[in-house]
Automatic annotation (TrEMBL):
One of its GO terms (molecular function) is oxidoreductase activity, acting on paired donors, with incorporation or reduction of molecular oxygen. Its EC number is 1.14.13.181. Belongs to the cytochrome P450 family. PROSITE patterns: CYTOCHROME_P450. It comes from the Bacteria. It comes from Oerskovia enterophila. Keywords: Monooxygenase, Oxidoreductase. SUPFAM superfamilies: Cytochrome P450 (SSF48264). This is Cytochrome P-450 monooxygenase DoxA.
Amino acid sequence: MTASSTVRRGRPAVAEDAAARAAHRWEERVQRGAHPLVYPAFRALARRGPVVRVPGLGVVVNDAATAREVLLDTEHFSKVGPGAPSDLWTPVLGPSVLLNMEGEDHATLRRALSGLFTPRSVAQLTATEAGASLGTLAPRLLAGETVDLVSEVGALAGTVICRMTGLPPTDAAVRDAMVAAQSVVGLVRLHRRRLTPTQVRYAREVLDRLSEPAREAYRDGDPSTVPGRMRGLGLSEREALGAVGAFVMTGTETIQSFTPRLVALATDTGWTDRLLRAEPSDPLRGRVVEEALRVTVPTPAMLRSVRSAHRVGAVPVRAGERVVIATVTCCRAGGPFAPDHDADPVLRNLWFGAGPHFCLGMPLAMAQVGAVLDALRPLAAAGRTLAVTDREVARGVLIPSYRRLEIEARPVDGEQPAARGTGEETA
Ligand code: HEM
């Protein structure tokens, strides 16, 4: 029996098919809003084979098993070198921000920072910040208010990352951090290997201004912050402030992209009620979140530079070539959103990468997603669920996202409104 022919909780198969198609169309709009040319190109390339060389772009990987092989093979593939993230980010952030490092230096810095990402640390940090910023979410919804989930999640992600990087978590600083992350990350285009000198100057100015207040955390050696821990390793103040920029960039937009898309997907496909009723430890909740990560793939691509002649799948590659892992294509090959189906083990967590650069922030990401779901749980206790009443996709961004996702509380068995919204009519 296929996902679409299963009848779940009394929803007829025809309605499920229509819901799955509507959810898919919205996800397509989100992807195309961010990447109107590259996303359709990725989809077309996927039909040409698991690994395809594209002049001017690189060797594109569309297959999960091959992607994993590349990510685990640090002898032949690197994040430092022509076409790799180091080309993009070292001129802006300096050489010591994990995502542009390899080998022993990378492992040492990762170890030093890992204490900030233990389940206990992230649970503490998230609980404190979520209590302050999400505490009113359910009461407002239950009182009949319409809430923009994108801005709510942005405030949480911004506050958490400000605390972690030693920035003052005031409303203004959080807003600055989100704007800085978006405007700098938004400069990246997959078909360009480097930022232009003007873009580098702009990005440095924005991130220098943002990071400046974290100087104190470095000077105090505060071990609850990224710069404090970097000082403990003997890294310079300049390097530590570069890392502040890197963490703001990696740790805000991804969460602000994913969490609203999770809620939208669950609502579009009739999963919200079950998701909100599930206890935090219920495997069903983990499964819905994981499946939404597989379908949304907040970081749609990963880059590597070829260190020495080798193969990517069956395609020979030369030193200095660029490998573009189309994570979004690899993960979406697993089919439409279907939390009640077993996940393919080859895809497991690929949306967070694999190997030595596996997302350091994953526990923090999961804690924040959990905090948002926890904040919405009182709706289930009150016999309510969520409806998406309006939405708008973000354009010209690197991380595909909704710009706005408005939600309201509804009776569980009430009719879902035909959600309004703006987006490309393509799928
Ligand atoms: C749903 C949310 C997130 C997704 C999907 C995601 C995805 C990823 C992926 C795919 C990589 C590996 C890139 C590669 O190998 O080229 C990565 C690395 C990284 N992520 Fe995340 N991320 C998320 C949230 C976060 C958060 C909240 C933080 C917090 C600071 C964070 C910090 C990092 C860092 C520092 C790295 C670099 C690790 C290294 O190079 O050793 N991420 N992320």
